[in-house]
Structure formats: C-alpha cells, structure tokens
Design brief:
378 residues; alpha/beta; 13 helices; binds pyridoxal-5'-phosphate
C-alpha cells in the first residue's frame, strides 16, 4: 500500500491503556456481548445525546441496522415491489433492500444539494403507486437533507413510510437545527472506522416508534421475542461489549471533535470556493466524514485528483461510479420502470472527496488546499 503524507481517513481512537481498562472490566463482568452492561450504557448515552424523545438500538454495524430498519418498517418483500432510493449513495442501501426481498428503484438527485429529489419520486408515485413499498432516503454524505420536510409530506400523501440512512451523519443537524435521528419512521447510523463518530464497527437505529424499535431489537437477536421464541425474521446483529466501551469513550467529547472537523471544512470552503468549486449545502452543520467538493468539469476533477496524488494527499470521489452503473445493480436498469439519472451521472463525474481529520494540522490543511488549487487551475 502506498504511504500518503495525508491519509484520507485517520480516526482518533481511545488510547490502548483506556481500551485495556475497559477490556479488564468486561472480563471481570464475564459478559462479552448480548446486551451487556457496556452496551446498555452506550445505548442510553446515545439516547441522551440525540434527545428528541428517541429510543435507540445498537448494532454490530450500520448495514445490519439498515437491514433491521427496512424489515421493521416495510416488512419482508414478497413479490416484485420496489423501494425508491437514489443511486448517488453507498452500496449498502440497495443491498439492504434486496436482502429484504425488494428491488431498488433508483431516482435522480438535486443538482445543488446532491440529495435525492422528491419530485422524481412524485412522478413515479403518480404514475404507479402500487409497485412501490416504501422509500429509503439517505442523507447524502451524512449531511441532513434540505428536502426532508418535502419527503415527509410526500410519504404522508402516498401513505409510504420512509427509512432514513444517516450512516455518516451521527452529530449532523438538519436545517432546523435538530440532530439527525428523528425524521421518517426511523434513522440509522454507522460507527465504522471511516465515519466521523468512529468505534471500528458499530451502528444504531433511532426512532420514536416503539414497535419499530422492538422489532429491530428482535431482528438483531435471531428474531427471538421476550419468551426466547422466534416470532419474526432475524439475524445476529449485536454490538460487542468492547465496541460499546469504545463508543462510550468516543461519545464523551463528540461535539468538540465534530467542531474541529467543521473548522477544517470551513478552511477548505473559504480558500477553494473562490475557484468555482462548490461544496454541499448544509455540510457546515454536518459531522463531515470528509469534504466533498464538486469541480466544474470531469477534466478538472481528474486534474485535481492527480495533483492531490502528486502532493501525497489521499483523496476519493464519493459516490463514483453511482450504484446504477455497478454490475450487480445494472440488472435493475433494464426494468421497464427505470428512468435515466442525468444529474447523478453528472455530479458523480465531478466530485472530489478531501480528507478531514480530527484536529487536522494547519500545515496539512494548507497542503491539501495547495494541491487542489494547483490541479484546479492547471
Ligand atoms: C457507511 C455507510 C453504510 C454502512 O455502514 P457500515 O457500518 O459500514 O455497515 C450504509 N449506508 C451509507 C450511506 C453509508 O455511508
């Protein structure tokens, strides 16, 4: 593997001494997983952090939280019904639909916010409501969608529940200032090492709906009900005690950690926005896994990525290629119902994702800015 001066992801984790102390406690309690003391404490700490009357279930990872959410909200798909979702997101979204027996129906995004655009869902629903079982709405790149109220209105009008994937957005806020977690039927989060709230592997589901939370709980425990009898579909999705312990430590000063990430985004925006490069609206209120910027053309994007590489900066281009162009999902393009996705293809061809670390050094930020500038004007 190539060594970069500035890696794309650099999680700040607790010290090995702290983790060793937690592990000693876990061994002492002789309780390693299955909703032990650390998991229960972490779960209630997450509820305290999010507020808004939410209940939380923890999971082994965000994908299992999403599988549980889709199952608990829409039930298992029986035939040929679809879940609406954008193609401009991470592969776990259509995978969770397919695991639950649904087909993904990819819709296009808004050119300014890069978020799934409700007007495309409305067109489909007005033409044929019956094929659609629900909506899986990602908050693109963990940024709270400015279209959220419009989506909820659409869901209400067509009597369609919405599962929200806020994987990278724990600690992000919607435009009304509230933390992500309380919209739609439920929201899910990922605590993967690459996300701003990183514990290694972990995830959570948040909802005010007791039925959904209870079903998600049973889902992650083999479908067992309180009598330890299988009453529904399930899997093993439980969060281990050591991961919960790491999560507890990471949560303590999360707001400070996220504000340090926002400062880095602010520097990128003020220095690079002048070149005609655009950033995602509402990212300034987000947890900022990375800084996504949109170049003016695919040619400029290629030059920026090359310049970053030359300067020893590891960068990405989320989410390129978009999901409807991946081999496994390509099959869903041939369905008679699939529409073209020009904005998705355009935006994803121009995105550059820049590293953001917690407490990123000023000279590292300068180097990233210099590399982007050199590529952008070349
Ligand atoms: C990261 C991510 C996931 C998956 O989370 P894991 O914890 O890695 O399983 C799901 N959806 C989106 C949009 C993501 O960014």
């Amino acid at each position: 593997m190539r060594a970069f001066k500035i890696p794309f992801i650099k999680p700040s984790l607790p010290s090995s001494a702290q983790i060793a102390r937690d592990f000693d406690e876990i061994v002492e309690s002789n309780w390693f997983t299955n909703f032990g003391p650390k998991e229960r404490q972490f779960r209630s700490a997450l509820e305290d952090f999010l507020g808004q009357g939410l209940r939380v279930e923890t999971f082994a990872n965000g994908t299992l939280a999403l599988l549980a959410a889709v199952y608990s909200v829409f039930g298992r798909g029986e035939s040929d019904r679809f879940l609406l979702m954008p193609s401009f997101t991470f592969a776990a979204v259509p995978q969770a639909a397919i695991w639950n027996g649904y087909k993904p129906w990819f819709i296009d995004i808004d050119p300014v916010t890069w978020q799934a655009d409700p007007k495309f869902a409305r067109d489909i629903l007005e033409a044929d409501r019956n094929q659609i079982a629900g909506i899986v709405l990602p908050n693109a790149a963990g940024v709270g969608s400015p279209h959220i109220a419009e989506w909820e209105q659409l869901g209400w009008e067509f009597d369609l529940p919405i599962v929200i994937d806020s994987a990278a957005g724990f600690g992000s806020r919607y435009e009304d200032g509230q933390y992500l977690g309380a919209r739609g039927s439920c929201e899910i989060f990922s605590f993967h090492a690459t996300k701003p709230f990183a514990i290694g592997e972990g995830g959570a589901l948040a909802s005010r709906d007791e039925r959904i939370v209870n079903s998600a709980h049973e889902f992650q425990n083999f479908g067992f009900n309180s009598l330890r009898l299988c009453g529904q579909l399930g899997i093993n999705g439980k969060l281990a005690e050591i991961n919960a312990a790491i999560g507890l430590r990471q949560l303590v000063d999360l707001d400070r950690r996220l504000s340090s990430r926002r400062q880095t985004l602010g520097r990128y925006r003020s220095e690079l926005g002048v070149l005609g490069l655009t950033f995602q609206p509402n990212a300034e209120e987000s947890a900022n896994q990375c800084a996504n910027l949109c170049c003016t053309s695919p040619v400029q994007k290629k030059a920026v990525l090359e310049s970053l590489l030359e300067h020893g900066v590891e960068a990405r281009d989320y989410y390129n290629p978009p999901l409807h162009l991946h081999p496994y999902f390509l099959a869903y393009r041939h369905l008679p119902t699939t529409t073209d996705l020009p904005t998705t293809e355009d935006v994803s061809s121009r995105i550059v994702s820049l590293p953001i670390h917690e407490n990123m050094r000023a000279d590292d930020i300068d180097l990233v800015i210099e590399a982007v500038k050199a590529g952008a004007v070349s």
